[in-house]
Amino acid sequence: MKFEILCKDKKARNGRLYFNKGIVVETPVFMPIGTYGVIKGLTPEEIYSTGSSLILSNALHLFLKPGINVIKKHGGLHNFMHWKYPILTDSGGFQVFSLSNISLKRNNGIIFKNPFNGQKFLFTPQQSINIQYDLQSDIVMCFDECPKYPITWDQANLSTRKSLSWAIQSRLQFDIKKNTNALFGIIHGSIFKDLRDFSIKNLIKIGFDGYALGGLAVGEPKSKLYDLIDHICLQIPKNYPRYLMGAGKPKDLIESVSKGIDMFDCVLPTRNARNGYLFTTNGIVRIKNSQYKNDDTVLDTKCYCYTCVNYSKSYLHHLYLCNETLGLRLNTLHNLCYYQNLMLNIRNAIKNKQFETFKHNFYLQNK
Question: Which residues are annotated as a binding site?
Answer without folding.
Answer: 90-94, 144, 215, 303, 305, 308, 334
